[in-house]
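Example 291.
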Amino acid sequence: MSVIKANNLTKRFGDFEALHGLSFSIEEGSITAVVGPNGAGKSTLLKIISGLIKRTSGEIKVLGEDPWKSQKLPRMLSVILDKPYLPQFLTVEEVIKEATSEFDADYSYALSLVEELNLTNFLKSKIKDLSTGTKQKVQIVFSLIKNPKIIVADEPTANLDVASRFEVYNIFLKLREKMHTTILISSHIASELIAISTHILGINNGVLRYVGEISKMIRKDLLEEFYITVDNVQRAVSLLKSYTVEVYGNQLKVRGNLVNIVSELVNNGVRIFYIRNSILDKSVQGEVGWV
Ligand SMILES: Nc1ncnc2c1ncn2[C@@H]1O[C@H](COP(=O)(O)OP(=O)(O)OP(=O)(O)O)[C@@H](O)[C@H]1O
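Predicted structure in complex with adenosine-5'-triphosphate:
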């Protein structure tokens, strides 16, 4: 069942057309990687879907509602933006309690999200005293407390290190599995995102380049090959014994499921600096076609 449907969707800012007649649909329970170079139109599209800005022409329906006009949609859809907007003088605990009561949600569920994002030690800290990455994680918890049917996340992991990015991805994967939540995530660095997504929507210069199931667009062997830069190569190699690993300096070329590989390393104290799947990145930048 499709939960988002766009038909000939256009957005103009003055004389500049940022989106040129996009038509697509998004299936319930999918994780869609919204990818494209800087300035492609990703944020503009996600803001229209979330009801934050109004389309210029065409049609968009989200859970059957017009996102710009709907009063019901804000209860069912959560937006996560790249810059956290939270009350600076409240503590993390106060922010979470407020959100829990506002959305009539379960406080123990909120605390489980806090735990999964390793925020328990920050409960008594004021938002203003947190690092940007930690604020971002609090914003993610805040957005998820109302148990949305759709999550629209615009570069949600932009300020986070690799371990924290995968904590967030793991929450998204669990929500999809347990609650059948539909998730759209944008990024212009797509290797990791594609590894956790079921679908991909590629935009360039406001034009829809491709949309559909990742498994039908990219060969599985190309999806499962990553270069990972780590602090301790020897330890990483011994932890990844069951995978095919090649070593190039402090970089490993590993084949397999990225989420499992990263948790194996991070949970055993290996620090990851960098993850790349160059073919996916180039595809997303429009340098090579889908294979
Ligand atoms: N409020 C605005 N007024 C005028 N132009 C805008 C406005 N918002 C976005 N644009 C333009 O629309 C185009 C698409 O911008 P958008 O932010 O959607 O791209 P993006 O794909 O999210 O880029 P990035 O990866 O850099 O975040 C850009 O050329 C941008 O300059």
